[in-house]
Fold each of these.
Amino acid sequence: MEEPRELMTTTSLSLNLIAPDLVRLLEQVGDARRRRVVSVVCDLAVGYSGLLDARAERALAALAAGRFGEAPERREMRSLIEELDTVTWVVQEQIRLGKATQEDFQRALAKVRAAAAISYAFEPDSLQAASEALFEAHHSIQDLELLRTAIANALR
C-alpha cells in the first residue's frame, strides 16, 4: 500500500528529524504565515551567527518582500554558501596546524548554516522552505528552545 503524498512529504522534511511537532504546527498554518516564520528565523540565524554580508541582507529583504523561487538573491546566497564553506575548510586546516580552535570552526560553520537557511527559504513550496530553513537555522544557532520561541512569536 502506498503512503499518502502528504505523509511522504512530511516525513521527508529535514525539520522532522529534530522537531516533528514543529512540522505538524507548520502544516496547520497557511503559506503567508509559514513564510513569515521563515523570515523571522532566518533573521535570527543571521544575528546569532554574526553573518555580515550584503548578499544576505538583500536576500532577507527579498524574503520579507514576499519573493521566493529562483530569485537573483537566491543565486547570490548559493555563491555565498560556497565561499563560506571554503572558509570552514580553511579553518579546519588551521585547527590541524594549531592555528585555530574548534570554536573558530563552529563560528564559521554557523555562518554557512545561516546562509543555507536563507537559501532554502526561497523554496517555492512554503512547507519545504520552512522545514529546510528552520533545520539549517537550528544548526546555526544551536538552541531549539530559542527557535521554538521565535516561531511562536512569529505566529502570533
Note: The longest helix spans residues 72-96.
Amino acid sequence: MNWRFQGKRQRVNLSRYAAQGQTLVQELSYEFAEDDLIEDARQRLKDTELNDWFKWRDDNLELVMDFLKASPSNRDRYKKFKIEERSLLVLATLQCAMEGAAFLDEVNMATLEPGRSYRAMLHSAALAHHYMIRADIPYWPYTNDGRISNTGFWDDDAPDDDEL
C-alpha cells in the first residue's frame, strides 16, 4: 500500500473512540446484568474450560461482531440475536468490547504515525501490543488460572457509582 501525504502530518487521535468504547462496555455490562443473563451464562459455562469458551467465541465471531456494532434497539429487534445462548452472546460481546477498547487505548497512546523509521514504528507497535495483552480484561466466570469463579459478575470489580 502506497500512502501519499500532503501538507502537515497529523497524528490520529483515537481517545474519543476509546472513551466511547468504554461507554459501550458499560452499556453491555448493564444489559448482561439487567436481563438476568448472568446466572444462565454461569450455568452454560460451568463445565467448560476457558479454551472451550474461546472456541465458542471464535465459532460465533460474526454474530458477536454484528451484536457489538448494533444499537441497543437493534439488539432487541433483530431475530438473529434472539438465540437460546443469548447470555453467551452478550458475554462474548462484552468481552470483545473490552478488548477493542483496550486496543484503541493502547494504540492511541503509542506513537504510530507515518514518516517514522520502520524500527521506531515496530518498537511503538510492540509496546502497544505488550500493554494491550496485559490489559485487565475479566473473562468471567473464569479466574486467571482458567477455573470457574464462585464470585458474581460484579463481585470482583463492581463499578463505583461515581465511575458510572
Note: Helices lie at 15-34, 38-45, 50-59, 61-69, 72-77, 86-109, 118-133.
Amino acid sequence: MMKATIVKPALNGKNYAPKLLIATINCVAMTERGLREIVTVRCYMAQGGSVVYCSLWIHTGTLHCAGHGQAGGGGYHKASAAFDVAICSAGIQLDESINAAGDSAMDDAVRAIASALGYDDIYLVRN
C-alpha cells in the first residue's frame, strides 16, 4: 500500500483553464460535517496534445496546499507523470513513484494522500 507524507505544504497550484480538461479525480471523505471534497486532481492538455498539465488541490479544515506539474514528449503515461510532479510541488512525498505509472497509480496516490490527511472513509470520483 502506497504511503504519502505531508513534508512541507506549499501553495503552488495553477488553474490551467482554458486548456482542454482531459481528466479529474475528486476524493470525497466522510467527515463529522458530512461529505467533503478533500483532494482534487485536474489534468489538462494543450492544443496539439504534446504536453499534459496537472493541478493538485488539497483542502481540509486545517490544511490547504496545492501543486502543479507538466509532462511532455511521447510513449508514456503523461498524466501520471505530470501528477507526480504536482505532488512534489505541493510539498508531499510518496514512498513510491507514480511517474508514468498510469491511472491506477494516480488513484493509489490520491488514496495515500487522503490517508496521510487522516481520512479513511473516502470515495474517488473520476471524470
Note: Residues 4-126 form one domain.
